[in-house]
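User: Can you write out an input/output pair for a complex, sequences first and structure second?

Assistant: Here is one pair. Inputs:
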Amino acid sequence: MNKKIILLFIGAIAISAGIIAYLQYNKPHINYEKASVDLTTTADALLQAFEHNETIANQQYLNRVVEVSGKPISAHTNPNGSVTIALLDELQGVSCTFDSAYVSQHLSSFAQVKEVSSLVIKGRCDGFLTDVRLSKCSFTHK
Amino acid sequence: MLLMLGCTALQAQKYMTKTGYIKFYSHSPIEDIEAENEEVAAILNGETGALTFALLIKSFEFEKALMQEHFNENYLESDEYPKAIFKGQIKDFSSKLVKEEGEHKVNVTGELTLHGETNTINASATLTVSKDGVLGATQFIVKPEDYRIRIPNAVRNNIAKEIEVTVRVDLQER
């Protein structure tokens, strides 16, 4: 009797571990459009933070959901259908990339980008090359 | 003298992108893993053939969220080493190359710094010159062990010892 209970117990643990491992392996990506904002700043301040001290800025912003406001300079459609909007400057500003799925659902917002003097964009901060890079972006004010 | 250098730099013909594409692919009997990064910055100096690529590790996208998490946190440690940089040179380069429309086979050599380690990379590449710019494409192999990337024993057989890297950059004159 005891042996049966032990076997059942071990079996239940094994099945639970299998289910947990399966769910972990297939867990979905973070939905950054719905994610709450960690830090709010301006494109100027964000760029200056990285230009002033990249190590400290990385500690502060890397992998965080950042809401940034700034003047759009250009909007470029990439080969995979994503769109990159440059704030402040094409090469030395803040680059915000919107996934193609988001772009296709918000075409009218992208059509108006060049007409507005300022945009508020939320995205994941990936770091700094010649510009600060935000990915998985979405508009927070349309 | 500084002014002269500045003028030379301004005159140098540069081809750039900040949305280049790099994919890596690992094949093993257990599973195939690939990740793409479409936010690669690249500059080709049209006078000297000097090449620079830079990318952010966090910009690699995986199909599985868990793989992306492990890649950033455990293998590439992207908080500590957020970038990968390649600095190299097209061998036997002539400035005429980027002015002649058509497909040119070239050899590239340079240093790849990844995860805090630097190694030499040699690769053959194709430059396709058109009115729209220069399209560069190449493939080469990197070994995780060369870049001090430690794979835990539990998943050692899931990840190839040689990773295939594919590069495609659409460079525009600036």
